């Protein structure tokens, strides 16, 4: 909030002028051909229920949203485009909505930038990415759907007026589509172009997600002028039995520090690359870390990087279709991810009048081990923290003990806690049969109410006073054959009293790659926001986002507890908590 208030007077003037522009334009019929935008304005009669609506996560005033598209930083302004239904709160009528910000927290919602209107996107304008060309001109590549059979092509759009600081209007030139699938490609599985990067040969490259015979593929296309594109003879990477690859993301990461790198970074030393894919078969995302052979345009994952749903994930919870960008202003890479609803039934979304949010944008960098990514909420989020409540230091929790964190708004809060323990001797044995299970299946077996040795311990978020409802976020340490395994869970099974068999209430979980022998410490940060709990374990090594819909633990009736249900005594070394303010969403 403070950062937004310190923005230049020009920003405030832009807001005023834009509002005036909208009023005058509607009077004079300037938007007469933009029927979708007018439909958006005329849909104000739709009721919006605020019971579970988030306070500080990104979402438009109403209606359905999904994939974040083409995030970019351009001339002092952050842009976020996203898939949006301007006519309702279920999927359909999708356009590219557009919002701008100075700080990634406070936003101005603009008119849609791209909407289906021509033969090359008549049946859909789906996801894509932005690239800043060397002459400082942004360009968007996106997937167009050309017929009722979901045949897909790749199109481009450019700003109508580069002197407009908000880049409100975008043009889709008539020489679209730029890329049409050849006969070797499944034309219904050919989508979501990445940000382009330039090789040392002066050619631009992009990746497009695809599939052949259940083999996920990252197809490479090259161009010298960004208009004429040629498919490479072989994909950048592919993997059997992974299904269609959606929303691919390919970017370099530094081995030296936490700074971000531009997609076209050409350094050969102290750099690795990340390939992220979204799997539409099971709605998981995974990524690998490896080496990019620039001469052969081949990506080779490291030996310890696994392709498929058993691989590393940016988030082990409700998080999909993520898209990253390089933030030139702060020299960092930032990733956005879509967090859909879990109340499942379309009637729920219709009654609420909205569906979907974007997760808090995260800075992402390579762990010093080189084996995984680290993610952490962008520093700007801390401007929404209200007066800090330092709840306690060095408090011990014995088996079965629980205490309430008071003095904050437990339904809308930011909590950081550091746990320690004196011994690993009480860690439970890891059952070898669990090795083939997903972590969330192990969490379903060993939930927060199952007493253990070293854990479970953690937070009971969005809890009712008497714990009829709560979403526990916790750790449990196991002794495996050669090492210790740390399970982190965000378990929604007890999150609501609502009786709805269709509601999705999983025991989301992931393992945390930490060495406990020397440190014997684990940290946890949870962002709690009415119907979302976004958690970061061990400084961002493991991230889990849960969507939950309490009936009792709402607003002022929500509580937050810290608990230990293991026989090993846990010490809370520090616990800091803040109520969170609401950003400006114009």
Automatic annotation (TrEMBL):
Q: Where is the Glycosyl hydrolase family 32 N-terminal domain?
A: 57-377
PROSITE patterns reported for this sequence:
GLYCOSYL_HYDROL_F32
Q: Which UniProt keywords apply?
A: Glycosidase, Hydrolase
- Keyword Repeat in the entry? The reply is no
- Which domain of life, per UniProt? Eukaryota
Q: What protein name applies here?
A: Apoplastic invertase
The Swiss-Prot or TrEMBL record annotates one GO molecular function as: beta-fructofuranosidase activity
For this protein's source organism, the top of the classification is:
Eukaryota, Viridiplantae, Streptophyta, Embryophyta, Tracheophyta
Alphabetized Pfam families for the sequence: Glyco_hydro_32C, Glyco_hydro_32N
**Membrane spanning stretches:** none
Task: State how it assembles.
Answer: May be present in two forms, a 70 kDa monomer and a heterodimer of the 30 kDa and 38 kDa subunits. The ratio of the levels of the two forms within cells appears to be regulated developmentally.
In the UniProt record, the gene name given for this protein reads: InvGE
What's a BP term from Gene Ontology annotated to this protein?
carbohydrate metabolic process
Enumerate the SMART domains for this protein. Glyco_32
* Residue ranges of every copy of the Glycosyl hydrolase family 32 C-terminal domain listed in the record: 380-579
| Broadest EC class assigned to this enzyme | hydrolase
CDD domains assigned: GH32_Fruct1-like
Under Enzyme Commission nomenclature, its number is: 3.2.1.26
- Gene3D superfamilies with a match to the protein in the record: Exo-inulinase, domain 1, Glycosyl hydrolase domain, family 43
What family classification does the UniProt entry report for this protein?
Belongs to the glycosyl hydrolase 32 family.
């Amino acid at each position: 909030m403070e950062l937004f208030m310190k923005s230049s007077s020009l920003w405030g003037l832009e807001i005023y002028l834009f509002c005036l522009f909208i009023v005058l334009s509607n009077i004079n019929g300037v938007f007469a051909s933009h029927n979708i935008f007018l439909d958006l304005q005329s849909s104000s009669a739709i009721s919006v229920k605020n019971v579970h609506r988030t306070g500080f996560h990104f979402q438009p005033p109403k209606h359905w949203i999904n994939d974040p598209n083409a995030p970019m930083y351009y001339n002092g302004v952050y842009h976020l485009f996203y898939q949006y239904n301007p006519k309702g709160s279920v999927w359909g009528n999708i356009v590219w909505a557009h919002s701008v910000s100075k700080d990634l927290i406070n936003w101005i919602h603009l008119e849609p930038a791209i909407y289906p209107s021509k033969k090359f996107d008549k049946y859909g304008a789906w996801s894509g990415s932005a690239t800043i060309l060397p002459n400082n001109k942004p360009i968007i590549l996106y997937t167009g759907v050309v017929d009722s059979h979901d045949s897909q092509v790749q199109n481009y759009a450019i700003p109508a007026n580069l002197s407009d600081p908000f880049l409100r209007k975008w043009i889709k030139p008539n020489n679209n589509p730029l890329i049409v699938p050849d006969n070797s490609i499944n034309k219904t599985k050919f989508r979501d172009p990445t940000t382009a990067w330039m090789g040392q040969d002066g050619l631009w490259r992009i990746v497009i997600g695809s599939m052949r015979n259940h083999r996920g593929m990252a197809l490479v296309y090259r161009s010298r002028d960004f208009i004429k594109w040629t498919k490479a003879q072989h994909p950048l990477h592919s993997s059997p039995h992974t299904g269609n690859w959606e929303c691919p993301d390919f970017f370099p990461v530094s081995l030296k520090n936490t700074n971000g790198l531009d997609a076209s970074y050409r350094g050969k030393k102290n750099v690795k690359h990340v390939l992220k894919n979204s799997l539409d078969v099971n709605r998981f995302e995974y990524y690998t870390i490896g080496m990019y052979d620039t001469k052969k345009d081949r990506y080779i994952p490291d030996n310890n990087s696994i392709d498929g749903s058993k691989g590393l994930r940016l988030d082990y919870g409700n998080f999909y279709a993520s898209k990253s960008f390089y933030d030139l202003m702060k020299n960092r890479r930032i990733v956005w991810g879509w967090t859909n609803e879990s109340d499942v039934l379309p009637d729920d979304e219709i009654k609420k009048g909205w569906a979907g949010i974007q997760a808090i944008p995260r800075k992402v960098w390579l762990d010093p081990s080189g084996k995984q990514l680290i993610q952490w909420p962008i520093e700007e989020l801390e401007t929404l923290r209200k007066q800090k409540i330092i709840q306690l230091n060095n408090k011990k929790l014995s088996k079965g003990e629980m205490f309430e964190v008071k003095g904050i708004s437990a339904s809308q809060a930011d909590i950081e806690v550091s746990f320690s323990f004196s011994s690993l001797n009480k860690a439970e044995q890891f059952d070898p049969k669990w090795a083939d299970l997903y972590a969330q299946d192990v969490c379903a077996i060993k939930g927060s109410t199952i007493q253990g040795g070293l854990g479970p311990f953690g937070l009971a978020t969005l809890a009712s006073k008497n714990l009829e409802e709560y979403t526990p976020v916790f750790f449990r340490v196991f002794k495996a054959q050669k090492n210790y395994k740390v399970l982190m869970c965000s378990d929604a099974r007890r999150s609501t009293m609502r009786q709805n068999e269709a509601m999705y209430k999983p025991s989301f979980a992931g393992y945390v790659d930490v060495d406990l022998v020397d440190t014997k410490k684990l940290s946890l940060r949870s962002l709690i926001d009415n119907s979302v709990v976004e958690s970061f374990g061990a400084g961002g090594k493991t991230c889990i986002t849960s969507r939950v819909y309490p009936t009792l633990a709402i607003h002022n009736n929500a509580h937050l507890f810290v608990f230990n249900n293991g026989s090993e005594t846990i010490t809370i070394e520090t616990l800091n908590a803040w109520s969170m303010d609401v950003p400006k969403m114009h």
